[in-house]
Amino acid sequence: MVISTITDGITRGVESAVASVNETLFEPVIRMGVTGLSRAGKTVFITGLVANLLDRGRMPQLRAEADGRIEAVFLQPQPDDTLPRFDYETHLAALTGDDPRWPASTRSISELRLSFRVRPAGFFAGLSGPRTVHLDIIDYPGEWLLDLALLEKSYTQWSEDTLTRLQKRSVAQDYMATARAEDASLPLDEGRAQALAARFTGYLTAARHAGWSDCTPGRFLLPGDLAGSPVLTFAPLPKPASIPRNSLWREMERRYEAYKSRVVKPFFRDHFARIDRQVVLVDALGAIHAGPQALEDLRRTMADILKTFRPGRNNFLTELLLGHRVERILFAATMADHLHHSQHPRLTAIMQAMLREARDRAAFAGALTTAMSLSSVRATVEETVQRGGETVEAVRGRLLATGKQAAMYPGELPADPARLLSPAREGADRWLAEEFALMQFAPARISLKPGEGPPHIRLDRAAEFLIGDRL
């Protein structure tokens, strides 16, 4: 085992060194991970970004485009033959067809390569011709990213932490009643273990639909070919006073450790360790709508994510990354088109405040991080409406449920983020001020001119932060 670990480490080190030399001398590669937390619109983000990088008429904030240095952008086969290709064409057709609809969510890892032919800037502009820069987009579920935190926890710690969080959640009451009634010191009963895992998975599913962010272990929700296997048949339990050798607790503990070693570590070894830039999409509006506890959960989850990107505090990560580290991380609040543009600065301020606090909680230092609000594909138009005798700034769109047009005024976000973050931190059950409401909109019918991608909000600024320095 030790020799195998050392050999793997040497092999990864050599591969990394060879790749670095090739990329520096020939065609640089940017590996960008994209993940999302609880219905944040990951598939729509990637589709909208790629469409607007291929046709850049709506990308004025991408500096290389504004300077006229991008000669061409084109899709190429992804470099990893073992990964599914992100189905860009099908997703774009869903968004831009005669009856536009949101594309189906991806449920596993996929990849897409976008290549840029770019003229150099500055001193080198007249000394060399255009060069090719590749952007490899790696799409993976947000729950998989959060699983890395499990590597630092024993089964006892994970059970205690999870059960403590679940105590105040209404969607967890069924599982909490089952867990409290269980005597984990009794001999293993496989049927009982499967029933516990099924009930815990039911809680995770309900928690994700309710807007909670920390829905881990991630493969319980996206099991794939692991469905029904022992590695996904465990659950958090109260620790008994005594733990006999063949008890339910011992077996749950063994399966939890197997999940870390056989599921979590391979993902980070094979994919995460190669990422240069990272996008974390966040449904901040959904968390605000769900209430203070959901917003606090989101803030804590952002801190856990930043811990993930801090090599050095975890021995496995230190060995895995071998000096490689993520250079830039973007936390993006999606669905900014559900607000009038006058409220966008407030949503961005809330995201920036949560990022600052998450950095403090994670004691994070390293990658360049930022937060912003955006809309990957704009689904609404803005208008003013009358509400309670007042004129308010609203948005109008096609309702997802009925297809009919409707105007929405969700309420006013506070100018001071502390108005939301303070009660969230203090564990308030609800907001004291007016509740924040949301509607679900379908994609708008659009007619694109040549050279234009789908309408968006701030995708160009996101692209400039993520890859502008490499173009």
Automatic annotation (TrEMBL):
Domain of life according to the entry? Bacteria
Q: Name one Pfam family in it.
A: DUF463
Q: Which InterPro entries does its entry note? A: YcjX-like
The protein in question is named YcjX family protein
